[in-house]
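Quick illustration for those who missed Monday's session on complexes.
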Amino acid sequence: MITPIKKICCIGAGYVGGPTMAVIADKCKHVQVNVVDISPQRIADWNTQDLTKLPIYEPGLAEIIKRCRGDNLHFSMEIEKNIENADMIFISVNTPTKKEGIGAGKASDLTFIEKATREIAKLSRGHTIIVEKSTLPVRTADTIKQILVNTKNHNPSGENPTFDVLSNPEFLAEGNAINNLNYPDRILIGGESKDAINSLKEIYLNWVEESKILTTNLWSSELSKLAANAFLAQRVSSINSLSSLCEASGADIQEVKKAIGSDSRIGNKFLNPGPGFGGSCFKKDILNLIYLCEFYGLEEVAQYWSKVLDINKWQTDRIAKVVFQKLFGTITGKNIAILGFAFKANTNDTRESPAIEICKKLMQEGAYLNIYDPRVEKNQIEKDLGKNYYQCNQNRGSWNNFDDLYLAVENVDALIILTEWKEFDNLNWQLISTKMRSPAWVFDTRSTKNILVAKKYGLNIWILGNHI
Ligand code: NAD
Ligand code: UGA
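Prediction with nicotinamide-adenine-dinucleotide bound:
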């Protein structure tokens, strides 16, 4: 029998839990959506009256929060009560790479998943559908089922609860999350129970056409999420590897991109060269895939995916080297402006941002960095780079944060564009050229529109994947 879903609980109010539940609440007014988290700060931030201060910046998110919060969307730390009352529970907790123990550096750390599952097992009443929203290794649903069955339930009536477990991975990309959630390419639901699958399907049918809802077995669904991220990351590493060949050979990566992307079998999306992919998931999910391959004895397959990560690291590392070489082989005591610190545009997320590694490398060589990003706050940069001061070997580098791009470029020897923020497409290069110290260099890692205008004002330019 299909369980009609009236109350949803989502465990984890992060980049996935927050926006995903906001959209479900927006589209399903008949469902009460309770998002819970163990972090008091996260919950306080979701409940802020000043909607510009939500914990996550996503275009369109604040409007939904305004429409739904307090009505059928609630953020709280009331984990126990909301688990008890829920018909359906989404697990959207973080699944970082393990730092210690068996599989360290590759396998997913499932501590948060396990803890959340134990809470569910202890507190649930009646029948509950558990939905894996987090990205997980294949066969995690087995572990979840075992914990659910083997943990003692605290229900005073003594009645044992029952569960169905589904996999419903999330494919949203940050900066475009609301759009992706409103108009998904597909919804993937893996499971064993047809009724449970249909209950979740009913939720999505409120705004997604049926042909876009794919149902599979549990393991295909879990693996497809890792595979999708691996394929996307592989495309970025492929184009990045060619960017260096373009620089060396005189080809232009933009022309190559257009030529190969015009082949409908290849397609023109996700072919932008850059300083290396960042974000919380590509690296961790490929490491997870590699670990799984090794676990199943598929060494060659593991090595194949490892190369995607190797190229990515190599690409990030070579940016700092190029800057160093162009600035006459020394950047000690030189001022360099960093334009963009987020791992991509339209987000304030800096997790695994290539900017972090590049800034660290430049500071290790003794550079003074002026960092400007339209969305990343100073305290986040401090978490990523340490206090304003960084010391390595005998060289002393440091960084400063600027809210105004034109102040950040004052008296710098070079500026480096690291995030593809739209506002960088139309910079006042004439003004910038008067502020920089000559000979001044512009390093563009994001194929910024109109960058060649800078050349007109006497600035030296290096463009990733271009032989100028
Ligand atoms: P996040 O770190 O932003 O959020 C996770 C939240 O879970 C945190 O706020 C944490 O406090 C909370 N949490 C952890 N354990 C808890 C518990 N026992 N009870 C209550 N709350 C708990 O992570 P995220 O970026 O939202 O990612 C979550 C999952 O979704 C990961 O598996 C990730 O791979 C996957 N994913 C992320 C994205 C993305 O764009 N960030 C996209 C698709 C899938
Ligand atoms: C990615 C996937 O696109 C989502 O489908 C997936 O749900 C998500 O990971 C996840 O599982 O977390 P996200 O990391 O938010 O989303 O952002 P992307 O747009 O994929 O960009 C990732 C990185 O690749 C960024 O650093 C971006 O600058 C870089 N990138 C992307 C390029 O360098 N070139 C491109 O053409 C595309």
